[in-house]
């Protein structure tokens, strides 16, 4: 089965043809760790987590290498450390942990490799040196800049014209720049700012070179899939592509470039700068389960905009409650993931169609298929034989309690309730009988 993915560079769906099916490589730009993730930030994390599960299904878990970086040096981090009067490392360690906790709550597995920018400075300095040597970068006033006019393909990923790129990058037109679209590879650090020695003086890297250097260090010159949100196409990925191609003797950086659309509220995309953010942690604290949030994030196709509102959450919760209630009442174990379901995801991650397929399986009473399919979406870990045995015991106890109550033997029904409580099972008596969940 071929996985087909929409490639931003060619603006077409492309079959995924990994360079080495024994080592399929994917890199997704990770967070800059100085604040809590909002639900828009969670969209790429969840989308690429689903893709990773699909790749694992197709190529084998041990043949997929997924890297997601941590940007732990950045002017916003420095500002946060100054504002809080703490060390930079305190800020980055705290928010990296928050990020991992928030994403795990959404069922996102940790990446195989999480390179930290500050641990790859040598590779960045080395790459910048090569770019200077090749004449595509130049040092000026303690900075090193990439000369976009030296790379004829500059703009081919974002398909922008140079004047749009200049406006889009909101680059300050510093007097030391040869061209207004030239971007920073290295910049000087003041004494109180974090910095590393380099041939161009004490300083720190620009954001774009971090990913180019880390990708090469942990995955290689050309990776199979490079991902992130739509806003990263320009300038971040355009610049990564330019730097890496020039530093790696023309080797393409990625076979397939993937970008998720924006999650928004009303007409606006959710973004810190617009001030319309809802944090993942706030949603969890408000009582929405990680699975509801995850399913809501997957309800739209990843390239489409996703409108986030309470209605979406309520609808999603109702659906998930129905499915989970249905699965809970059965001990039937997971089957293989249905081929059609896999094919749906293999068609450019068609998650809305996958969700519709789950609804169909639930109508048809296909418990085994649902368990497998939901596991593949990361909505439920596939049920182990022990879980299934537990479920059978619990169902039997719940039935015995119902019988005791019907026979007005309340001592017995209370005894059974206590036994279930001791097993960590929470009973919910409702109009249509008693349901239960693991507490
Ligand atoms: P940032 O912290 O802004 O660098 O964003 C981290 C990741 O989240 C990047 O891949 C962004 O493209 C993505 N992202 C940020 N805001 C949104 C949004 N509203 N909807 C979808 N993805 C987003
Ligand atoms: Zn990046």
List keywords for this structure.
Isoleucyl-tRNA Synthetase, Domain 1; 439 residues; binds zinc ion; Rossmann fold; 15 helices; binds adenosine monophosphate; four-stranded antiparallel β-sheet
Describe the SSE topology.
Layout: E1 4-7, E2 12-15, E3 24-28, H1 39-59, E4 64-68, H2 75-84, H3 88-105, H4 121-133, E5 137-140, E6 143-146, H5 162-169, E7 183-188, E8 203-205, H6 207-218, E9 223-229, H7 233-247, E10 254-260, E11 263-265, E12 268-269, H8 280-285, H9 290-298, E13 306-307, H10 310-328, H11 339-346, H12 351-364, H13 367-376, H14 385-406, H15 410-422, E14 425-430, E15 433-438
Parallel strand pairs: 3-4, 3-9, 9-10, 11-13
Antiparallel strand pairs: 1-2, 5-6, 6-7, 7-8, 11-12, 14-15
The protein binds adenosine monophosphate and zinc ion.
Give me a quick take on this structure:
By secondary structure, the protein is of the alpha/beta class. 45% of the residues lie in helices and 15% in strands.
Could you name the CATH topology of the largest domain? Rossmann fold
Give the overall silhouette.
elongated
Measured between the Cα atoms of the first and last residue, the distance is 40 Å
Name the helicity range. 40-55%
According to CATH, the homologous superfamily of the largest domain is HUPs
Proportion of residues in extended strands: 15-25%
The biggest sheet amounts to: 4 strands, parallel
């Amino acid at each position: 089965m071929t996985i087909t993915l929409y490639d931003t560079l060619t603006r077409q769906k492309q079959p995924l043809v990994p360079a080495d099916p024994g080592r399929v490589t994917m890199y997704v730009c990770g967070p800059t760790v100085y604040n809590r993730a909002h639900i828009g930030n969670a969209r790429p994390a969840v989308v690429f987590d689903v893709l990773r599960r699909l790749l694992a299904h197709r190529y084998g878990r041990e043949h997929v290498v997924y890297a997601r970086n941590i940007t732990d040096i950045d002017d916003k981090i420095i500002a946060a450390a100054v504002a809080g009067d703490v060390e930079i490392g305190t800020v980055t360690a705290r928010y990296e942990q928050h990020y991992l906790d928030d994403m795990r709550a959404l069922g996102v597995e940790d990446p195989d490799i999480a390179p930290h920018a500050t641990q790859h400075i040598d590779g960045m300095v080395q790459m910048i040196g090569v770019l200077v040597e090749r004449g595509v970068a130049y040092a000026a006033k303690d900075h090193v800049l990439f000369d976009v006019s030296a790379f004829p393909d500059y703009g081919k990923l974002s398909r922008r014209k140079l004047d749009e790129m200049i406006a889009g990058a909101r680059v300050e037109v510093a007097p030391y720049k040869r061209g207004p679209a030239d971007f920073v590879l290295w910049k000087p650090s003041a004494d109180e700012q974090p910095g590393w020695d380099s041939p161009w003086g004490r300083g720190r890297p620009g954001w774009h070179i971090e990913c180019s250097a880390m990708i090469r260090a942990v995955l290689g010159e050309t990776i199979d899939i490079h991902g992130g949100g739509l806003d990263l196409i320009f300038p971040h990925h355009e610049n990564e592509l330019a730097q890496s191609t020039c530093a790696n003797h023309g080797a393409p950086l990625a076979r397939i470039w993937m970008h998720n659309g924006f999650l928004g509220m009303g007409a606006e995309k959710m973004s810190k700068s617009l001030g319309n953010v809802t944090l993942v942690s706030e949603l969890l604290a408000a009582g929405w389960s990680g699975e509801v949030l995850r399913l809501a994030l997957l309800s739209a196709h990843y390239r489409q905009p996703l409108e986030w509102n309470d209605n979406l959450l309520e609808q999603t919760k109702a659906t998930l409650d129905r499915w989970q209630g249905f699965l809970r009442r059965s001990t039937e174990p997971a089957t293989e993931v249905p081929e059609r379901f896999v094919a749906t995801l293999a068609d450019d991650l068609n998650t809305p169609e996958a969700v519709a397929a789950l609804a169909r399986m639930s109508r048809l009473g296909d418990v085994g298929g649902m368990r497998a399919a939901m596991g593949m979406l990361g909505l439920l870990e596939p049920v182990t034989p022990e879980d299934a045995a537990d479920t059978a015991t619990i169902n039997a106890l719940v039935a015995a309690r119902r019988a005791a109550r019907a026979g007005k033997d309340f001592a017995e029904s209370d005894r059974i309730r206590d036994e279930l409580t001791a097993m960590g099972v929470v009973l919910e008596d409702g109009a249509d009988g008693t349901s239960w969940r693991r507490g």
